[in-house]
Design goal:
- The complex is a heterodimer of chains A (about 250) and B (about 800).
- Chain A is an alpha/beta fold.
- Helices cover about 25% and strands about 30% of the residues of chain A.
- Chain A has one domain: 3-Layer(aba) Sandwich (Rossmann fold).
- In chain A, the strands form two sheets. Chain A has a six-stranded mixed sheet with strand order 6-7-8-3-9-10, sandwiched between helices.
- In chain A, helix 6 links the parallel strand 7 and strand 8.
- In chain A, helix 3 crosses helix 4.
- Chain A is globular, with a radius of gyration of 17 Å.
- Chain A starts with 14 loop residues before the first strand and ends in a 12-residue tail after the last strand.
- The N terminus of chain A is likely disordered.
- Chain B is of the alpha+beta class.
- Chain B folds into four domains: about 200 residues, no CATH class; about 200 residues, no CATH class; about 190 residues, no CATH class; about 120 residues, no CATH class.
- Chain B has 22 helices and 22 strands.
- In chain B, the strands form four sheets. In chain B, strands 3-4-9-6-8-7 form a six-stranded mixed beta barrel. In chain B, strands 13-14-20-17-19-18 form a six-stranded mixed beta barrel. In chain B, strands 2-10-1-11 form a four-stranded antiparallel sheet.
- Classes of the chains: A alpha/beta (about 250), B alpha+beta (about 800).
- Chains A and B meet through helix 2 and helix 3 of A and helix 13, helix 19 and helix 22 of B.
Chain lengths: ~250, ~800
C-alpha cells in the first residue's frame, strides 16, 4: 500500500495505534529469538504510556515497530487508518518524517552540527514545524543554540534531542530510556518537557524505561515479560514530573 | 597452530577485503608498470646486446665515395681498431610490375663464402648468394614479409639505370638494420624500402667498382678511444670522399632503438613513483582508521601482556600482506603487458629472436618497492598503536569535537543547509585525510592527462612536420645530385603543379672546440614547398646568406644567432669555410642546418644543386606522374607524403593507444582505490549519523547524498589540482621522452584535459555510488542502541 500525501486522520481521543497479534522473530544464524509473541494493544491519541520490563522483554522491539524503524514478523499495526505493516521503506520514512519524534538514551545528536542546526535538521523536512529557536526555548536552551554537542553537558544534549523531536510537532513521541544517562535533576527537566508537549500539543508519548519512578507520570503503564504484555495499569491521577523522585 | 594474533590478522584482512584489494590494486599498478617497463627495457637490451655480440655489430661506421679495397688494411693499422671491413652499398630502385610506386632498396655487398666478420647476416631461410651467380640476393625479412617475397621470388632492380633481375635465395636480417629506415624518412615503411644483400663480385660488377668499397665498418679494441679512431679514419678516408665516420650513437638503427630504451627508462622513473606515493597514503589512512576502531582491542591485548612490538608488528603485517598481494598481481599484469609491448616492438624493431624474459631481479625490485611503500604507509599507524597505553586504549576515544572555526563561519555566511554543513565540517575536521583524497584523485587525473597528451604531442609534431613544413606531395630522390635541367623536365609532366629543388649535404660544423657531424639542407629562398616551422607554428624565412640552425644543433655547438661556425663539407670538394649563423629554429624532428640554395652551392661548388625534387601535383594525375617517374633512369625513389603520414599515424595508433589503454586503466585504479577507501572510512565513521538521519525521516537517497556529497566535493576540489600537477608532469615527461631524434612538443589539447577529468570523475563517482549503496543496509535499530 502506498500513501498519497501525509498520514493523518487521527482525531483526538481516537486510538493513535492499534496493534493486533504483533510478533517479531529475529533469526541469528541457526537460532530464533522471539522478541514479541503476540502483542495486542491500543494506544489512544494524547496518552502518556510507560513501558516497563526487564531487558529483552520486547518493549524496545515494540517501540521500534511503532516508530516505523522495524517491521513485525506477523500481526497488524494501524496508525489511524493506515496499516503500517504494509508500507514500503519510502512510506515508512515519510511516516517517521511526518509523525514520529524519537528520543534515545544516547541523544544521537550530530556532532558536526550546533544545537540549533540539529533541530533544523528536522524542521527542514517537516510539514508543520515550529521555529527551531522556539523548540530550543521550550527546553530552556535558547542561550546555547550556537553550541556544538561536544560543548554541551549530557543533560543539555538530551534537551536538544527533545527539542529536535518536538520541533516537527509530531503525532507521537517515542522515548527509549530518555533519562537513562542523566542525573535525576536533569532527567526530571527532560520529563517535564515531554509532559508539556503532551499537554500543549496533544502529542502521544510512549516512554520505555527501567525506572519505575517514571511510571507515576503515565496515564497507563504496561509491563512486559518475555515478549508479551504481562500487566496493564491505569493511572487515574498522573503525577507532575516535578513530583517524581528517584 | 596459528597464533591468535595472526588469526585476528587474517580475519581483519578478510573483513576489510574491499579496502585491501583497492590498495593492492594501486600498488599493483606500480609493480606492473615497473615490471613492464623494466622488463621490456631489460629484454630489449639483452636481446640487442646478444644480437650485436653474436653478429659482430660494428662500433664505428664511415661512408665514402669510393676507395680501393686496400684502404681497409690501412685502417686496420689505426691504433685501437680491432677489425675492419669494407663493403659496397648501393641504393637501387626495385620495380614491382604491378605497382606504380617505385620501391627503394639498399644493396649491400656480402662475401659469397660467408667470410664477413662484421654486421653479420642471420639467415632465416635459404642460403647466401653463391659466387658466380650474380643474380642471387638475400632480402631482409621485414621487406620480404611486406612485399610477399619468398625464396625463389624474382624482382627487378634498376642499378645505374640498368635493369637487373634478382632471384631471392635467402631471407635474413642484420644488426645494422634492426630499424630499417629509408634516408629522409622518420618511420620504417617496409613495403617501400628494404635492404638486400648480394654477392660482392656481383655488386662490384653491377656498379662498376671492381675491388672498391664505399662503406667501412670497424670494431674497437677494449679501452680504445672512439673519438681518436674516428679522427684517424676521417683522415685516412678524406682523399676518397669520406663523409665522416661516426659511432654507434649516430647510427640510425641504433639511435632509434636507443631512443625507445630511453623512453622506457624515463617511464620507469616517472610513473611507478606516483602509484607508490598514493599507496603509501592509502595504507596510512586505512591502517589509521583500523587502529582507531580497534583501540579497545589494542588495550586489551596489551593488558594481556603482549609487547608494543607485537602490536606494531601485527599492523605492519597487515600492510605487508597487502604488499605481497600487490606484488603478485602487479608481477602477473606487468609480465602480461610486457609481452604485449614486446610484440608491438617486434613489428618495428627486427631481431632474429626477441627474447621476452623477465629477470627475477626485476620482480624482486618491484616487490621491494611494493613492500617499502606499504611499510612506509604503516609506520604512522604502528606508532600510534605502540604509543597507546592499555588504560587509555580501553576507554572510549574522545568524541569528535567540532568547534566554530573558519569553515563553520563560512558555512553560516553561505547559509548552507544542515546537510551542507555536515559535509563541509567533516572535511575540515579531517584535513589530512581530505587532503590525501584530493591529492590521490588529483594524481590520478594528472597521470591520465600526462599520458593522453602524448597523443596531442605526437599529432602536433606530425602536423608541424607533414603539413606545415612539408607542403609537397612527392619527394623524388635521384641517384646523384643533378643540375637544374631536371626541374624543367619534371615540371613538364602533366599534372605537376610546382617543382622545387632541395639538397642535403653532409658537413662537419665546428664552433670552438665543439664539432658536430650533421647536414645542411637547402631550399630556394622563395620556397613554397619546404618551410622551416618554429615551435609556435610560424614559418621562419631562410637567411639570404649564412646558416639557420635547428635549436638542438645550436645547443650542442653552443652557438647563438650572430656567431660564426666552421663548415667543412664531407665528401665532394671537402671545402671549408666560415659562415655566420643567422637564425635558430626550434624544430621537433632531427637536427640539422638550413641554407639558401645559393649558399649551399658556395659550399658544394659542383653545379648540381638538385639532390631531390619536391613536387606538388594534381591528385588526378598521380598515376600518370608515378608511371613517368618510374621510367626515369635517374630517379632513385619517391616518397609520398600521404603514405608516410599514414604509417606514422598507424604507429601512433598501435603504440601509443596500447600504452594509453594501460595507463587509463592504471590511473583509474588510483581514483578507484583512493575514493573507495575514503568512502569506506567515511561510511564507517558516519554510519551512526546516517542511521540517525534515517530515523529522523530522511530518505535513503538523501542520506546517501551526505556520503556522495562529501566525496563529490573532494573530487571536484581535486580537478584543478589534477590539471596543475598533470601540466607539470606532462612537461617533465615530454622532456624526458625527447632525444636527438625527436623533441616532443608540449601541446596539450582541451580534449585531453576534458577526457582526463571525465574519466576520473566517472571512476570516482561509480566507486562512490557503489559504497553509497550500503546505505540500503543501514541497521537503524542496532546503530541507535549503541553508543557512538
Amino acid at each position: 500500500m502506498h500513501m498519497d500525501g501525509p498520514i493523518t486522520g487521527i482525531s483526538p481521543q481516537a486510538p493513535a495505534f492499534v496493534a493486533t497479534g504483533l510478533c517479531k522473530i529475529y533469526k541469528t544464524g541457526e537460532t530464533e529469538v522471539h522478541a514479541l509473541r503476540g502483542v495486542d494493544l491500543s494506544i489512544p491519541s494524547g496518552e502518556i504510556l510507560v513501558l516497563l520490563g526487564p531487558s529483552g522483554s520486547g518493549k524496545s522491539t515494540l517501540l521500534n515497530i511503532i516508530g516505523g524503524l522495524d517491521r513485525p514478523s506477523s500481526g497488524s499495526l494501524l496508525f489511524g487508518e493506515t496499516e503500517l505493516t504494509q508500507l514500503d521503506d519510502a512510506d515508512l520514512t515519510r511516516f517517521r518524517r511526518a509523525q514520529v519524534g524519537f528520543i534515545f538514551q544516547f541523544y544521537n545528536l550530530l556532532p558536526s552540527l550546533t544545537a540549533e542546526e540539529n533541530v533544523r535538521l528536522v524542521t527542514d523536512i517537516a510539514e508543520h514545524p515550529m521555529d527551531p529557536a522556539k523548540a530550543l526555548a521550550l527546553v530552556g536552551l535558547a542561550e546555547r543554540s550556537d553550541h556544538y554537542p561536544a560543548q554541551l553537558s549530557g543533560g543539555e544534549q538530551q534537551r536538544v534531542a527533545v527539542a529536535r523531536a518536538i520541533a516537527k510537532q509530531p503525532g507521537v513521541l517515542l522515548c527509549d530510556e530518555p533519562t537513562g544517562a542523566l542525573d535525576s535533576g536533569t532527567g526530571i527537566h527532560v520529563l517535564k518537557t515531554l509532559a508539556q508537549a503532551n499537554r500543549e500539543l496533544g502529542t502521544t508519548v510512549v516512554i520505555i524505561t527501567h525506572n519505575a519512578g517514571i511510571a507515576a507520570m503515565a496515564h497507563r503503564v504496561i509491563r512486559f515479560l518475555d515478549g508479551r504484555i504481562a500487566r496493564i495499569e491505569v493511572n487515574d491521577q498522573p503525577a507532575d514530573p516535578s513530583d517524581i523522585r528517584w | 597452530m596459528v597464533r591468535a594474533l595472526d588469526l585476528k590478522l587474517m580475519r581483519d584482512l578478510w573483513r576489510l577485503r574491499g579496502q585491501v584489494l583497492a590498495i593492492a590494486l594501486v600498488l599493483a599498478a606500480a609493480t606492473a608498470t615497473f615490471v613492464m617497463s623494466r622488463g621490456v627495457h631489460h629484454s630489449l637490451t639483452v636481446t640487442r646486446d646478444a644480437y650485436y655480440a653474436r653478429n659482430h655489430f660494428a662500433d664505428v661506421f664511415a661512408g665514402l665515395t669510393r676507395a680501393p679495397r686496400s684502404v681497409v688494411s690501412r685502417i686496420a693499422e689505426i691504433p685501437g681498431v680491432r677489425r675492419v671491413e669494407g663493403t659496397l652499398q648501393q641504393y637501387v630502385t626495385i620495380d614491382f610490375p604491378d605497382r606504380v610506386v617505385p620501391v627503394r632498396a639498399l644493396l649491400n655487398s656480402i662475401d659469397e663464402k660467408g667470410r664477413n666478420q662484421l654486421n653479420q647476416l642471420t639467415l632465416r631461410r635459404g642460403r647466401l648468394p653463391q659466387a658466380g651467380a650474380p643474380g642471387e640476393a638475400v632480402v631482409d625479412e621485414a621487406f620480404a614479409e611486406a612485399n610477399r617475397l619468398a625464396i625463389g621470388s624474382e624482382i627487378d632492380a634498376l642499378i645505374y639505370g640498368r635493369k637487373q633481375r634478382l632471384r631471392i635465395v635467402g631471407i635474413g636480417l642484420a644488426p645494422n638494420y634492426i630499424y630499417a629506415i629509408a634516408p629522409g624518412d622518420i618511420i620504417p615503411d617496409n613495403s617501400r624500402f628494404g635492404v638486400l644483400w648480394v654477392g660482392r663480385r656481383a655488386l662490384e660488377a653491377a656498379t662498376d667498382r671492381t675491388e672498391a668499397i664505399n662503406t667501412v665498418s670497424l670494431t674497437l679494441e677494449r679501452g680504445a678511444s672512439e673519438p681518436d679512431v674516428i679522427r684517424a679514419v676521417d683522415a685516412t678516408l678524406a682523399p676518397y670522399g669520406g663523409t665522416g665516420a661516426y659511432g654507434r650513437k649516430d647510427h640510425l638503427s641504433h639511435a632509434f632503438l636507443d631512443n625507445e630504451l630511453t623512453q622506457l627508462s624515463a617511464m620507469t622513473r616517472v610513473i611507478p613513483p606516483i602509484f607508490l606515493l598514493v599507496a603509501v597514503f592509502l595504507v596510512y589512512i586505512v591502517l589509521g582508521r583500523l587502529i582507531r576502531t580497534e583501540r579497545t582491542q589494542i588495550g586489551l591485548i596489551k593488558a594481556f601482556g603482549y609487547s608494543d612490538w607485537a602490536i606494531g608488528g601485527h599492523y605492519l603485517k597487515f600492510a605487508l600482506v597487502v604488499a605481497l598481494l600487490a606484488a603478485a598481481l602487479g608481477a602477473i599484469a606487468g609480465i602480461w603487458m610486457g609481452g604485449a609491448m614486446t610484440r608491438l616492438y617486434a613489428q618495428y624493431y627486427r631481431f632474429p629472436l626477441l627474447y621476452y624474459r623477465i629477470s627475477p631481479s626485476v620482480i624482486l625490485s618491484a616487490a621491494v618497492l611494493s613492500f617499502g611503500a606499504a611499510g612506509a604507509g604503516a609506520i604512522g599507524g604502528m606508532r600510534s598503536a605502540v604509543r597507546l597505553t592499555p588504560a587509555v586504549a580501553m576507554s572510549p576515544p574522545p568524541p569528535p569535537s567540532y568547534r566554530a572555526g573558519a569553515i563553520e563561519k563560512l558555512g553560516k555566511a553561505a547559509r548552507f543547509s544542515a546537510i551542507g554543513n555536515m559535509i563541509v565540517r567533516h572535511i575540515a575536521r579531517w584535513p589530512g585525510r581530505s587532503a590525501i583524497t584530493v591529492l590521490g584523485v588529483a594524481l590520478s587525473g594528472a597521470l591520465l592527462f600526462a599520458t593522453m597528451q602524448f597523443i596531442d604531442s605526437s599529432r602536433t609534431m606530425l602536423d608541424s612536420f607533414f603539413f606545415r613544413a612539408q607542403r609537397q606531395d612527392l619527394t623524388v630522390t635521384f641517384t646523384e645530385p643533378r643540375n637544374e635541367d631536371v626541374l624543367f623536365q619534371l615540371s613538364q609532366l602533366p599534372g605537376v603543379l610546382r617543382v622545387e629543388p632541395t639538397r642535403i649535404v653532409a658537413v662537419k660544423i665546428g664552433h670552438g672546440s665543439r664539432v658536430e657531424c650533421t647536414a645542411i639542407e637547402s631550399a630556394p629562398l622563395d620556397s613554397q614547398l619546404s618551410l622551416r616551422i618554429d615551435r609556435s607554428g610560424a614559418a621562419i624565412a631562410l637567411p639570404v646568406s649564412g646558416l639557420m640552425l635547428s635549436r638542438q644543433l645550436a645547443d650542442k655547438l653552443v652557438v647563438r644567432a650572430g656567431d660564426h661556425v666552421e663548415v667543412e663539407m664531407l665528401g665532394g670538394r671537402r671545402s671549408r669555410l666560415t659562415m655566420p649563423v643567422v637564425s635558430v629554429v626550434e624544430e621537433f624532428i632531427g637536427e640539422r642546418a638550413y641554407a639558401a640554395e645559393a649558399t649551399l652551392e658556395r659550399i658544394a661548388r659542383d653545379a648540381a644543386p638538385v639532390g631531390a625534387a619536391l613536387i606538388r601535383i594534381d591528385p588526378a594525375y598521380r598515376y600518370q606522374i608515378m608511371t613517368h617517374l618510374k621510367d626515369m633512369p635517374y630517379v632513385l625513389g619517391i616518397t609520398e607524403k600521404t603514405a608516410a603520414l599514414k604509417k606514422f599515424e598507424q604507429m601512433i595508433d598501435d603504440n601509443m593507444l596500447t600504452m594509453i589503454t594501460f595507463y587509463v586503466a592504471f590511473a583509474s585504479a588510483i581514483a578507484v582505490g583512493v575514493v573507495y577507501n575514503s568512502a569506506r572510512i567515511l561510511y564507517s565513521e558516519r554510519a551512526h549519523e546516517l542511521a540517525t538521519l534515517r530515523v529522523l525521516g530522511y530518505f535513503r537517497s538523501e542520506v546517501g547524498m551526505i556520503l556522495l556529497g562529501e566525496l563529490a566535493l573532494l573530487v571536484v576540489i581535486s580537478v584543478p589540482f589534477g590539471c596543475l600537477i598533470g601540466y607539470g608532469m606532462a612537461q617533465l615527461m615530454t622532456a624526458m621522452f625527447s632525444s636527438d631524434l625527436f623533441r616532443l612538443p608540449f601541446a596539450p589539447s582541451r580534449a585531453s584535459y576534458g577526457w582526463s577529468v571525465v574519466i576520473v570523475l566517472c571512476a570516482a563517482m561509480a566507486t562512490a555510488l557503489g559504497v553509497a549503496r550500503r546505505v540500503q543496509h543501514l541497521d537503524m535499530v542496532r546503530v541507535l542502541k549503541a553508543r557512538e
